[in-house]
Amino acid sequence: MKQNIFGMSLPQLQGCLKEFKLPAYRAKQIVEWMYQKHVLDFQQMTNLPIALRTSLTDNLDIFRVKLLEQQDSRDGKTSKFLLELVDGIAVESVLMRQSYGNSVCLSTQAGCNMGCTFCASTLHGMVRNLTQGEILAQALFINEVLNKEEQSINTIVIMGSGEPLANYDNVLNFIRLCHETYTMNLGYRHIAVSTAGIVPMIQELAKEDLPITLSISLHAPNNVIRSKLMPINDKFDIHAVVAAGKHYANITKRRVTYEYILIAGENDQAEHAEELSRLLRGQMANVNLIPINPVVERGLKRPSLNQIKVFEEILNNNHIAVTVRREMGNDIQAACGQLRNKHAAENQL
Ligand code: SF4
């Protein structure tokens, strides 16, 4: 099998091309074709000598991802892509056309083994980590879609299937790659990474000195509810997670976002909002309330609009910065993992 060069950084590609004894600028030309012009065939790289194009075609491969299915919401603002990787595994990526720009949500693992009870991605466990190139491939596939509309990606949220900090090196390499001028030239401040709360890895991330946004999936105001919703809480409890978030904010001077999925009858009561306020008081943080996208397989329900408003008001009254996530793509299978599960069931994977 020929070596796939898609996803390599410029220095990695230069290393790979050593045997061809090419001047250094050739690797630069190739990455620009792959990552900026979305050209995935050496023969179409017209500033390379014809003999070199043939030699590269004979020896190397460029595989990005293959589109298996696309679902667009009725309002046209959200598109969900089911993308096939080189070994036939499918992952999901989402494009959200927001008022402030185009945001994409990427997967970092095929499936997930964190076991969160509200999440479809974990229903069949984790198949494998994605490589830096496979994470980049999702972003660049969507960037090509946007480039055809003379637009591009403005923000990346690493919040799709998988626990990013359990695939730490690949995720960090990807973050550095999309900051490069030869890929998307995306500012670190436009990248957010989300974790279920792997405390030692949050501490590692704080040391990287990257001004990315850290998003922590909290989803509960105390250990009893959090352990019920997120088994990882039995390993790193809510107080350790919040302490790690505080440490990250202190080191990076970046506000941490706490994600809080509101589930009717589980974590959406006034007393929970009061308890959450006490937990986060004094932190450089904000809370993002996410009324649950009902997960068919799990039987979980969304709270009423009034209940969401009451919860938000209590946080506001306690001086906790809070936003309610705008609901996008509810008419397509927008909850993380739902489209992939449907595909697997239909194809008996
Ligand atoms: S919410 Fe995130 S960490 Fe939890 S199971 Fe789903 S993908 Fe994994």
UniProtKB/TrEMBL annotation:
NCBIfam families: rRNA_mod_RlmN. SUPFAM superfamilies: Radical SAM enzymes. It catalyses: adenosine(37) in tRNA + 2 reduced [2Fe-2S]-[ferredoxin] + 2 S-adenosyl-L-methionine = 2-methyladenosine(37) in tRNA + 5'-deoxyadenosine + L-methionine + 2 oxidized [2Fe-2S]-[ferredoxin] + S-adenosyl-L-homocysteine; adenosine(2503) in 23S rRNA + 2 reduced [2Fe-2S]-[ferredoxin] + 2 S-adenosyl-L-methionine = 2-methyladenosine(2503) in 23S rRNA + 5'-deoxyadenosine + L-methionine + 2 oxidized [2Fe-2S]-[ferredoxin] + S-adenosyl-L-homocysteine. Specifically methylates position 2 of adenine 2503 in 23S rRNA and position 2 of adenine 37 in tRNAs. S-adenosyl-L-methionine binds at residues 162-163, 194, 217-219, 293. Binds 1 [4Fe-4S] cluster. The cluster is coordinated with 3 cysteines and an exchangeable S-adenosyl-L-methionine. One of its GO terms (cellular component) is cytoplasm. Residues 98-331 form the Radical SAM core domain. [4Fe-4S] cluster binds at residues 112, 116, 119. The active site is at 92 (proton acceptor), 336 (s-methylcysteine intermediate). It is found in: Cytoplasm. One of its GO terms (biological process) is rRNA base methylation. Its EC number is 2.1.1.192. Reaction proceeds by a ping-pong mechanism involving intermediate methylation of a conserved cysteine residue. It holds the Pfam family RlmN_N. It comes from the Bacteria. This is Probable dual-specificity RNA methyltransferase RlmN. PANTHER family: 23S RRNA METHYLTRANSFERASE, RADICAL SAM CORE DOMAIN-CONTAINING PROTEIN. Keywords: 4Fe-4S, Cytoplasm, Disulfide bond, Iron, Iron-sulfur, Metal-binding, Methyltransferase, rRNA processing, S-adenosyl-L-methionine, Transferase, tRNA processing. Its cofactor is [4Fe-4S] cluster. InterPro entries: Aldolase_TIM, Methyltransferase_A, RlmN_N, RNA_MTrfase_RlmN, rRNA_lsu_MTrfase_RlmN/Cfr, rSAM, rSAM_sf. Belongs to the radical SAM superfamily. RlmN family. One of its GO terms (molecular function) is rRNA (adenine(2503)-C2-)-methyltransferase activity.
